[in-house]
Design goal:
This protein has about 160 residues and is mainly alpha-helical. The chain folds into 2 domains: about 35 residues; about 80 residues, no CATH class. It has 4 helices and 2 strands. The protein is elongated. The structure holds zinc ion (ZN). Zinc ion binds next to helix 4.
């Protein structure tokens, strides 16, 4: 019994390994295919008297895409509980609640949230938030005191 359990575990391990090899093989095949397709395209372009397409350009575009995605992620993270993103037909873009400002795209928005004006407005709104929390705490403390010493009148 124990032997068969061990045996199946080993089989899974090999299976995993085979899948990994298969995935890598597929990736390589895809790359080779893309390279061959590019050769075909460039042969065709040469016939038409056009300059060839360079594969390098495609590779350069990819990191830019990744960076863009990351910037958008930052924007979304910054939005949590503070800033609303609105898409309105009248004023499309990113709306900053703290500044009551609309930025036309994510790049502008990113500039905006790193800007001095925004930081100042965020500071002010954080101060207000803090003050309201403190006032609630004060009130709770006051109520607690009242409960602990009910004989002492507040308006005596
Ligand atoms: Zn702002």
């Amino acid at each position: 019994m124990a032997g068969s359990a061990y045996g199946s575990g080993k089989a899974q391990d090999t299976d995993f390994r085979r899948k990994w090899d298969k995935a890598e093989y597929a990736a390589r095949a895809k790359e080779r295919e893309a390279r061959e397709r590019l050769l075909d395209i460039n042969a065709e372009r040469k016939r038409q008297g056009l300059p060839p397409i360079h594969r390098k350009k495609e590779e350069e575009d990819e990191p830019k895409q990744a960076l863009k995605a990351r910037e958008e992620k930052i924007v979304l993270d910054a939005n949590v509980g503070k800033i609303q993103v609105v898409q309105s037909a009248r004023q499309p873009g990113f709306y900053c609640k703290a500044c009551d400002t609309v930025c036309k795209d994510s790049a502008n928005y990113l500039d905006h949230i790193n800007g001095r004006k925004h930081q100042m407005n965020m500071g002010v709104s954080m101060k207000i938030e803090r003050a309201s929390v403190d006032s609630v705490k004060d009130r709770l403390a006051m109520l607690k005191r009242k409960k602990e010493a009910p004989e002492k009148t507040e308006y005596g």
